[in-house]
Amino acid sequence: MKSVSLVGDDWKNRVSEFASSEVFDRLFKDGMALVEEAAAYLDGPGRQQSRQLDREEALVYAAESMEVTTRLMQSASWLVVQRAVREGDMTANEAGEDKFRLSPPGELRELSAVQHLPETLLDLVVRSRALYERVWRLDDTLFADEETPTDNPVMSQLERLQDVAESGAFDPLSIWRDNK
Fold first, then answer.
1. What is the dihedral of CA 113, 119, 121, 127, to 10 degrees?
2. Are 71 and 95 in contact (CB under 8 A)?
3. 108 and 119 in contact (C-beta within 8 Å)?
4. Is the confidence at residue 151, as pLDDT, over 60?
């Protein structure tokens, strides 16, 4: 994690605008729904299914369910902080503190190593990873010290064409002159 510089205010505006957006509303709703779905599964049917697994599979199940829970709780905490910014309970500056930021996603286990686990758990693993990575990318982008310019492929191509044109490569008379 990197701490946000207090020099520029661009990131503060980005954070406030995002927290007030419909995109945030949808992400918040979807994220919290996934948290509720995971909790209901892990406390109910998932608990029953884990008891039917052999010892090694039960240990893998426990590890995966803890990782799902951790990813979802970190994502939910980040979303709640952004909502607090929107509601004026927290400033963008406070939301930029390290304790409210997300760490980059860690190394992921191959899902083939857990293929004998219940399908519902595997689905929650995939969806919790996707949510965490999405929220982490937002965190990394919103709190960046400065906006990272993105390469515009159209402008790059136009610049190359202009360079070639200025070099004389598009001189239609060059063929006629070369044949003399």
1. 90
2. no
3. no
4. yes
171: left (phi over 0), alpha (psi -120 to 50) or beta: beta
C-beta contacts of 142-151 below 8 A and 24+ residues apart: 142/11, 142/14, 142/15, 142/18, 143/4, 143/11, 143/15, 143/96, 143/101, 144/11, 145/4, 145/5, 145/7, 145/8, 145/11, 146/8, 146/10, 147/10
How far apart, in whole angstroms, are the C-alpha atoms of residue 131 and residue 137? 10
- Identify the pLDDT of residue 5: 44
**CB neighbour class for 145 (10 Å; exposed up to 12, middle 13-18, buried from 19):** middle
**Identity of the amino acid at 128:** S
pLDDT tens, residue by residue, 56-112: 899 999 999 999 999 999 999 999 999 999 999 999 999 999 999 998 887 766 655
Tell me the pTM.
Answer: 0.73
Ordered DSSP codes for 146-166: SPPPPP-HHHHHHHHHHHHHH
If you classify domain 10-149 with CATH, what class do you get? mainly alpha
Token representation of residue 56: 């090694």
